[in-house]
Amino acid sequence: xxxxxxxxxxxxxEPAPGTRAPLSPIDVxxxxxxxxxxxxxxxxxxxxxxxxWNVVVGIAAPVAAIIVWALFVSPRAVFAVHPFVRAVVxxxxxxxxxxxxxxxxxxxxxxxxxxxAVTVGVLAGRRxxx
Length: 130
What we know:
- This protein is mostly helical.
- The chain is 68% helix and 0% strand.
- It has helices spanning 25-48, 53-72, 83-103, 107-129.
- It is elongated.
């Protein structure tokens, strides 16, 4: 037993330039939450509003959310912002989708989505900082 050398954990290798780190299940869940939020905003716009506003809101709401997401939250965001600002913008998109479900009378869908989205967002955010 004295012949064994002490083992120290090695830091994982960084991905080669031009490649990405492999996707984790948290990354996939975060992407699904994003798609669900954008789809919710489109659904809310087309279903909740009367014609002709349903066409306008059904297209404008998810497009606005996608633009804000691309500017501040996306992995290749246009503006490099503080992680707190990034988390607030992400939370605002999720809150808007939750409020959309509440306004359509499906409060439980909004509550479940909000809980899942916040949990996945916290896990993904903690993973980014580690």
